[in-house]
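FORM 7B: Structural annotation worksheet

SECTION A. Query
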Amino acid sequence: MYFKNINESIAPASLTKLMTSLILIENYNLSDYIEISLPSDYIYEGKVAYLKSGQKMTIESLLEFILIYSANDACFAVAQLFNENTDDFLALMNKRAKQLGMNNTNFKNPDGLDQDGHYTTLSDLLILSKEVIDNYELLSIIMRKSFISNIEGEDKVYLNTNKLIERNFYGLKTGWTNEAGLTLSLIHISEPTRRTPISYAVFCLK
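SECTION B. Predicted structure
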């Protein structure tokens, strides 16, 4: 095992979405239908799917927007499912982090955009990644190269942001912000039909 600067505080970027997704799947079933709701003051920023309040979709579709397309607005839609006050969902994220032993992590938003006080470490991200790997429902979504949604009225293909998926690097998540640089959580699977990880890595390039 190789590691370097694993306890250095970093911005997690979109790897934040792994925690957002974990909490969602621990409280809902993939087949559950929900109605999208966004905060009244929400501003579309970064990579978004331009979801709109009132749209209906399954939890599985919402997770596809988060884990495959990396849509920031989908993360705020998740937060609204738990409470209209996003801060309440952030409290859940931070509580779950502490339960997992992520003692050097603090979440200030559900999507991973740069924000003061929003930080983690590579060591903590490895803990989170292992938890996600153990969740087959999340892993099965992460491993998809694309998905189709008609949320805009007609079928549209959304591609996975993880371009290494073509080389058997099936997830977990890619991320990038000005503060974080490039963040990646990867697992390499030699025999996809057996889902047997032979290696995984979490790193930040800045």
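SECTION C. Observations
The radius of gyration is 16 Å. The longest helix spans residues 86-100.

SECTION D. Sign-off
Analyst initials: ____
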